[in-house]
Design brief:
Chain B: It catalyses: (S)-4-amino-5-oxopentanoate + tRNA(Glu) + NADP(+) = L-glutamyl-tRNA(Glu) + NADPH + H(+). The complex is a heterodimer of chains A (272) and B (421). Chain A is an all-alpha fold and 272 residues long. Chain A contains nine helices and no strands. Chain A is flat and about 60 Å long. Chain B folds into three domains: 159 residues, Beta Polymerase, domain 2; 138 residues, Rossmann fold, CATH 3.40.50.720; 78 residues, no CATH class. In chain B, helix 6 runs antiparallel to helix 7 and helix 11 packs across helix 12. The chains are: A mainly alpha (272), B alpha/beta (421).
């Protein structure tokens, strides 16, 4: 590892994300599309170095590094960036970068400056990998739906108040935003479901039980039911527009409480 | 004789009032006559006239050190204004300023409404006219082609023309902000009015699904419905129209509210939360403003639409600033080309001279020698190589230095014995 120093790859990623965040914020004030493009490319390269960082970490310390704050936050950062890159490229929703890149930067920063010494060591295997990656990508998708929900609420309130700022000119239509929220929730929901099933199988392999009533499992189950309800109500045509946005934001807040709170309060398989 | 220059003399809506501009208004035969007359001035090499209702501009290429002297006399004769008056209303720009001005005009930065698209067509027409009359030479050709390219870049890169700047287009823009695409949306027009009808026409062009026309009398409604290819309704049927429509444009002469809050609340349950976009162009207003409080209902009155237009104009001004940067780069590239262009004929002349001497000498010597075809080819090739290698350094040095140091041109001419100016 003399040529590719893991920590410096991580630092490069952080700098790229910072650069991306800076350009997106600059885009908000100058409104020049070219500046947003710089932000997008910085994110794209950052995505690659972030991936490299995780691979190097695993090569150096073994797959158990993913159970440490260092590994977990690096994974969270790349999850957020992948979801952002997927949707912003598909729907040309560059404005979402303004809200998403700061989070990726934060996660990467936390990862870079936290410890990577694993406490519990579990054999990862295919099921374990699926469990972890689908969980993180799922969270990132929910996070993205929240950010688009915020964009929706901003545009909606500007249309109601008849005040028009950069969001009026750069955000696509309400219908498209709603569509994206629905799609990212669907993607997140699918991934979380996958994560729950693979987690159960993994748990059976490791501990001989599918379900252990750990607070995190319970909280995730509650989140799962809430998102299932959101999707059900949306497809049924009962809840859309602003209501969908509020629910999506509430869902993400719950996940954040879930993620941070449970790690702080309870010790166990799911804590660092 | 001086350097080759691109110049412009002209006036626009900012520098001259309409009664002055109309003295220059040139159309058809008058325009053709003016182009030919301008081109016939001894100092003018090439020319083009851009004449629109907001501006009249005379672009010309000259080597004269005092480029506007004879042009002013021509303009004075054309308009009947004295030269003092011309100085008051006209701008005279040359080289960098003229090129920048032309690019700004073609990019619609100099227009009354920044970013309006008509000027591009008008600029193209002016260029085509100059080509047709044979007054557009290499410089005008290059200038116009570059100007049109710049204009295209400005439009795509800055999005200067993206946002609506008229009330009726603002209505369409808002509809798209709410609904995205309009192909599955229905529009209803209540009453009749020029602006409302215009907005409906724009919506139809944007591909709305169905058009409903509502009027106090069915007869009037049917007449308008026929024009739009829509369906006619009486005012009493307004509630069923409100259930079906997604976009409603109201413009009646009624003194009270035609659409009340109760009406919308009543139809809301049948609409299943589909957003409703209401536009009230009538004064006094047709739609109860309290309706805007209802969720998923967006009501815009004439003042709100004006605010959208204002915000969009601001956005265009911001894009215009970005455009100036694009233009600046292109101006310098064009000026560089212009300088190089002056040098090109001399280089061509030197190459022709060398080739002529080579051909003459070859013809003389080869006939006296007894060579095979292959040997003849070898000799031909050899002479070519010598000339190319010998001329390479002088030509490249000249091409690099001459645009900035005029002395090179004189020396180049004298050393190689090229034609005098």
């Amino acid at each position: 590892m003399s040529i590719l120093n893991t920590q410096s790859v991580g630092l490069t990623t952080l700098i790229l994300y910072l650069l991306s965040t800076f350009h997106y914020l600059l885009f908000l004030t100058t409104r020049k599309d070219k500046i947003a493009t710089v932000g997008l490319y910085a994110s794209r390269i950052g995505f690659l170095t972030n991936g490299l960082f995780i691979i190097l970490l695993i090569m150096e310390k073994g797959s158990s590094v993913l159970f440490t704050p260092k590994g977990a936050f690096a994974l969270l950062a790349i999850s957020v960036i992948s979801v952002f890159l997927y949707f912003s490229t598909k729907y040309r929703l560059h404005v979402s970068g303004i809200f998403l890149t700061p989070w990726a930067t934060l996660f990467m920063g936390v990862s870079l400056f936290s410890k990577g010494i694993p406490k519990n060591v579990f054999p990862l295997g295919t099921v374990g990998t699926i469990h972890i990656i689908s969980a993180f990508l799922g969270y990132a998708a929910f996070m993205f739906s929240t950010i688009v929900s915020i964009l929706y609420l901003i545009l909606e309130s500007q249309l109601k108040k008849k005040k028009f700022s950069v969001f009026y000119h750069k955000v696509p239509s309400l219908r498209l935003l709603e569509n994206i929220i629905y799609k990212s929730i669907t993607v997140g929901f699918t991934l979380i479901t996958l994560s729950m099933f693979s987690g159960a199988i993994w748990s059976q392999k490791l501990f001989g039980t599918y379900w252990s009533w750990h607070p995190k499992q319970v909280a995730t189950l509650i989140t799962w039911f809430i998102y299932a309800a959101i999707l059900h109500l949306y497809i049924g045509g009962k809840w859309h527009g602003k209501k969908l946005c509020y629910l999506s934001i509430a869902g993400t807040i719950l996940i954040v409480i879930d993620f941070i709170g449970i790690n702080l309060l309870f010790k166990g398989v799911h804590s660092f | 004789m001086g350097d080759l220059k691109l110049c412009v003399a002209g006036m626009n809506h900012k520098t001259a009032p309409v009664e002055i501009r109309e003295k220059f208004a040139l159309k058809d035969e008058k325009l053709e006559g003016a182009i030919l007359e301008l081109n016939s001035l001894p100092s003018v090499d090439e020319c083009m006239i851009l004449s629109t209702c907001n501006r009249v501009e005379f672009y010309f290429v000259t080597r004269n050190d005092n480029p506007f002297l004879s042009v002013k006399t021509f303009l004075s004769k054309l308009s009947g204004l004295s030269e003092d008056e011309l100085n008051k209303y006209l701008y005279f720009k040359s080289q960098e300023e003229a090129v920048r001005h032309g690019f700004r005009v073609a990019s619609s930065l100099d227009s009354m409404v920044i970013g309006e698209p008509q000027i591009i067509g008008q600029f193209k027409d002016a260029f085509a006219k100059a080509k047709e009359m044979g007054t557009a030479g290499v410089v005008i050709n290059r200038f116009c082609e570059t100007a049109l390219k710049v204009s295209k870049r400005v439009r795509t890169e800055t999005g200067i023309a993206r946002n609506a700047v008229s009330i009726s287009f603002a209505a369409v823009e808002l509809a798209k902000k709410i609904f995205g695409y309009l192909s599955d949306k229905n529009v209803a027009i209540i009453g009749a009015g020029e602006m409302a009808e215009l907005a409906v026409k724009h919506l139809i062009t944007s591909g709305v699904n169905k058009v409903f026309v509502v009027n106090r009398t069915l007869e009037k409604a049917e007449k308008l419905a026929k024009e739009f290819g829509g369906k006619a309704f009486k005012l009493e049927e307004i509630e069923s129209v409100l259930t079906m429509a997604d976009i409603v444009i109201s413009s009646t002469g009624a003194p009270g509210y035609v659409i009340t809050k109760e009406m919308i609340e009543k139809v809301e349950s049948k609409r299943h939360g589909r957003p409703l976009f209401l536009i009230d162009i009538a004064v006094p207003r047709d739609i109860d403003p309290a309706i805007d409080k209802i969720e998923n209902v967006y009501l815009f009155d004439i003042d709100n639409l004006k605010e959208v237009v204002e915000a969009n104009l601001e956005e265009r001004k911001r894009a215009a600033k970005e455009a100036e940067g694009i233009i600046e780069g292109c101006v310098h590239r064009f000026l560089h080309w212009l300088k190089e262009h002056e040098v090109a004929p001399l280089i061509a002349e030197l190459k022709q001279k060398a080739e002529r001497i080579r051909k003459e000498e070859l013809a003389k010597r080869l006939s006296k020698m007894n060579l095979t075809e292959e040997q003849k080819e070898q000799v031909d090739y050899l002479t070519q190589i010598i000339i190319n290698k010998l001329l390479h350094t002088p030509i490249t040095t000249f091409r690099q230095k001459a645009p900035d140091e005029k002395a090179y041109i004189k020396v180049f001419r004298e050393i190689f014995g090229l034609t005098k100016e």
